[in-house]
Design a protein that fits this description.
Helices cover 68% and strands 8% of the residues. It is mainly alpha-helical and 190 residues long. It has one domain. A two-stranded antiparallel ribbon has the order 1-2. Helix 4 runs antiparallel to helix 5, helix 4 packs antiparallel against helix 7 and helix 5 packs parallel to helix 7. It is elongated. The N and C termini lie far apart (87 Å). About 8% of the residues have low confidence.
């Protein structure tokens, strides 16, 4: 009896393990929707950056955004082809490191935060974080944690190379008086 039970366990264990590799239809639907949302949302921080740049009439910010975003794209693809890391799902197309979706999302988010402050940055970073999550948990498991971290470093690093905080008022004139003394002050921010 013990031998039959042991043999039954030995035979059924690989079948149970194989059955665990297949996702249910609802899991496949969830992962597909998650990955598709990440595909579209990766562009939201960059598009928001452009809208804010236009609304503020920030010419200097436009050029800073152009340089940082261009550097992000260029560096991402140079690293993808130079490193040629295989994807976690077993595909042989390589080009997994760094995650392009993540680098683009974090480039736009970090531009908003660096140029216009945390009021814009926090929601933008939340979107970028969701995009990073969608790359790991999507239907095809296209990236691992190192790919995501590489994308974050490329996106934020490129932005911090070229972007300065936005200063709405470049000069300030002050006047102060008291006890017969008068003081006129002028401060200019570069």
């Amino acid at each position: 009896m013990k031998r039959i039970f042991f043999l039954l366990i030995m035979v059924t264990t690989p079948l149970v393990m194989l059955a665990q590799d297949f996702d249910s239809p609802s899991e496949i639907r969830r992962e597909t929707n998650l990955e598709l949302a990440g595909d579209y949302l990766q562009h939201l921080p960059a598009l928001t950056s452009l809208v804010v740049i236009i609304a503020e009439k920030d010419k200097k910010g436009f050029w800073q955004f152009t340089k940082s975003y261009g550097t992000t794209l260029g560096l991402t693809y140079i690293l993808k082809y130079a490193i040629d890391k295989p994807r976690p799902d077993g595909r042989t197309d390589g080009k997994a490191f760094p995650s392009g979706h993540t680098s683009v999302a974090f480039s736009g988010a970090s531009f908003l935060q660096r140029r216009y402050g945390w009021g814009y940055g926090i929601p933008a970073y939340a979107v970028a974080g969701f995009v990073a999550y969608s790359r790991i948990e999507g239907i095809n498991d296209r990236h691992d944690g190192w790919d995501i971290l590489g994308g974050i470093v490329v996106g934020i690093g490129s932005t911090y190379l070229f972007t300065t905080p936005y200063q709405r008022e470049h000069f300030e004139l002050t006047f102060n008086s008291g006890e017969g003394n008068y003081m006129l002050g002028f401060k200019y921010k570069f």
